[in-house]
Design brief:
The complex is a heterodimer of chains A (225) and B (376).
Chain A (H helix, E strand, L loop, with lengths): L30 H5 L7 H12 L17 H10 L5 H25 L12 H12 L3 E8 L2 E8 L2 H18 L7 H13 L4 H15 L10
Antiparallel strand pairs in A: 1-2
Chain B lengths: L1 H9 L3 E5 L10 E5 L1 H4 L3 H4 L6 H22 L8 H11 L16 H4 L24 H26 L14 E3 L2 H8 L5 H16 L7 H5 L2 E3 L13 E2 L5 E9 L2 E8 L6 E3 L2 E2 H4 L3 H13 L7 E7 L3 H16 L5 H9 L30
Parallel strand pairs in B: 8-10
Antiparallel strand pairs in B: 1-2, 3-4, 5-6, 6-7, 7-10, 8-9
Helix pairs in contact in B: 7-9, 12-13
The chains are: A mainly alpha (225), B alpha+beta (376).
């Protein structure tokens, strides 16, 4: 393929089994991307567009939509919360969580004095994104066996891994450390607001991980990648 | 002498009669061969070699047979194409066999007999090509050639810089062509390649391309690349139809897993959507399905402008929604400009989702899940 070096020969042969041919590309549902005119696109994007014109594209999955209400992060989180394939329940829980977050923020908003009203964030999507960002660890630990002994080596994490860890910690925290009677949306909204303000057990967990990585600094040179 | 003959006879050889070639009269000579010599090593000789004379004879027979067939069917032998042959054979020899390759067929010998390499060595046993003993002579000679072109391009570039002329740099059309696939390259070289060999060759070609003076080698590169037409050109968009009231409408069909849907999209509508005679609010109580139905409209900013009547059967709730979405996107193609159709395709709205339920395998509980492992 006359393709840019970034796309060179990445998958001539399939490794993981997929119903799609390896030449199929991922779909892009974001409307603004298509409304940009030709001159506004950068060099890389122009090359991508040209490549997309020739290659077949995979079908958009049922969770992907161009509407303003669909958010990829929220979909990912919903999928991780889902149990036994019950997407309906997971989605309704997510919706109730966002509603609970909004209600709590609105209560605070109405009770606050005039000058503080502007600082209170009421948009549940913004709170969700910011809370996730605050929960993401920067550095992680990886077990490397050298000379018979296994060491915990500090290692920089990829973006995907950071997001996954933040979401995983949130969900496990909400499932385990709650009262018998408390429902998931309430507990989740509580945790999200705490994480938004940089407090709470998940932020503590992140700090603990950072401290462990700092403590094992001596083994950092064991990493070879 | 008698001892030698006796020893030879005891070794189990055979006396065979051989007639010498040439103008001499028929005299036979006895030639002694042992079974060890006569026993052929079948594995080493490789697949059966078709000689050129054999192939020529087959082509003549094929052409003759084609004319006979044309006469039998009562058609003109001069303008009898391969498709006509296929139809005639299917008519004269009807077969209910499932596998198409097992049915009687009559094709040109070059399609039937695979292309084979001629014998690579002369009468004295000495190979013709200097790379014969590498085992992959065509591949290595190709690599040598390509590298030679690369060196030429670099030399040319050096000459230009020595003369202080700017190197010609024209951006080629990046996406219009693709390299030959491994199978195509194997057919071209008549030799088996490994994945690593193939990828190394493609890397070398790409390096040649990225050089500024790679344009001089364009002819050589064109041998290994193929044109890829834009995906959009492959699909034919149907024109709009008009019903009795004068309203424009268009139909579409879609599938997803086991669900089949047909959709009629009417113009000048209010955004009402009916599925199997029921309103979507009642048929699809889940928000996700309704979002999927509205996805094509929302993408094209035509939410309140069309009416939709759908019929769907089979599959589950999500599969039916996906099927209707595909059918709807296909129907909307007739209402919309070509550029927007291309945008829809890039958003993944016009591709049939090939994912189906994976079959259960024997020895496992499900498609992937294995039985519980018990130590004893």
């Amino acid at each position: 393929v006359y393709s840019p070096p970034s796309l060179v020969l990445c998958r001539l042969t399939q490794v993981r089994w997929s119903r799609y041919n390896p030449s199929f590309l991922e779909p892009e549902a974001n409307k603004e991307f298509y409304q940009k005119s030709w001159e506004q696109l950068s060099e890389e994007e122009k090359e991508k567009m040209e490549l997309k014109a020739v290659r077949p594209i995979k079908a958009a999955p049922p969770t992907l939509s161009s509407s303003v209400f669909s958010d990829p992060m929220i979909s990912k989180f919903t999928n991780m919360m889902m149990k036994d394939g019950n997407k309906v329940l997971a989605r309704s829980l997510m919706a109730q969580t966002l509603e609970a977050v909004k209600r709590k923020q609105l209560e605070k908003y109405h009770k606050a004095p005039e000058d503080e009203k502007e600082t209170i964030e009421c948009n549940p999507y913004v709170i969700f994104h910011q809370a996730l960002k605050n929960c993401q660890p920067i550095i992680g630990l990886s077990s490397i066996t050298k000379g018979g002994k296994t060491y915990q080596v500090p290692v920089p994490l990829k973006d995907n891994r950071k997001r996954f860890l933040a979401m995983k910690w949130l969900i496990t925290e909400c499932r385990e450390n709650k009262n018998r009677r408390m429902l998931m949306p309430e507990k989740l909204s509580q945790e999200l607001l705490q994480a938004f303000n940089n407090e709470g057990p998940i932020i503590k967990k992140k700090h603990v991980l950072h401290k462990m990585a700092e403590a094992n600094r001596a083994y950092a040179h064991f990493r070879w990648w | 002498m008698a001892v030698a003959v006796g020893r030879a006879l005891r070794l189990g050889g055979r006396w065979s009669a051989v007639a010498p070639a040439g103008p001499r009269p028929q005299t036979l000579r006895l030639i002694y061969t042992t079974t060890a010599v006569r026993r052929k090593n079948v594995g080493a000789s490789g697949p059966e070699k078709y000689t050129e004379a054999f192939i020529k004879k087959q082509i003549e027979e094929f052409n003759l047979g084609k004319r006979h067939l044309a006469n039998m069917m009562g058609e003109d032998p001069e303008t009898f194409t391969q498709e006509d042959i296929d139809r005639a054979i299917a008519y004269l020899f009807p077969s209910g066999l499932f596998d198409k390759q097992a049915r009687p067929m009559m094709k040109h010998p070059t399609e039937v007999f695979p292309e084979q390499r001629k014998i690579q060595w002369g009468e004295d046993g000495r190979p013709f090509h200097f790379l014969f003993y590498t085992g992959k002579q065509s591949y290595y000679s190709l690599m040598h050639e390509t590298y030679e072109k690369l060196l030429n391009a670099q030399k040319y570039q050096d000459q230009l810089t020595a003369q202080d002329l700017p190197p010609q740099k024209e951006k080629k059309n990046l996406a219009g062509s693709r390299w030959l696939t491994k199978i195509e390259l194997e057919e071209m070289l008549l030799e088996k390649l490994s994945d690593l060999d193939y990828s190394r060759f493609i890397q070398l070609l790409q390096k040649l391309l990225t050089l500024p003076c790679g344009d001089i080698e364009e002819k050589y590169i064109q041998k290994f690349s193929k044109e890829v037409p834009a995906q959009l050109k492959k699909v034919v968009i149907e024109p709009l139809k008009y019903d009795e009231r004068g309203v424009a409408f268009s139909t579409g069909e879609g599938t997803r897993k086991t669900a089949r849907a047909t959709v009629v999209v009417y113009d000048n509508g209010t955004g009402k959507i009916t599925v199997n005679g029921i309103d979507i609010l009642h048929y699809f109580p889940v928000l996700q399905d309704r979002e999927q139905l509205l996805f094509p409209f929302q993408f094209l900013d035509r939410i309140g402008k069309h009416d939709m009547v759908c019929t769907v059967s089979g599959g589950g709730r999500s599969a039916q929604a996906g099927a209707i979405r595909l059918a709807c996107a296909k129907a909307l193609r007739s209402f919309v400009t070509e550029q927007e159709v291309e945008f829809m395709r890039q958003a993944g709205l016009l591709t049939v989702d090939p994912r189906v339920k994976e079959r259960k395998k024997p020895g496992q509980e499900g498609a992937r899940r294995k039985f519980t492992w018990k130590k004893r």
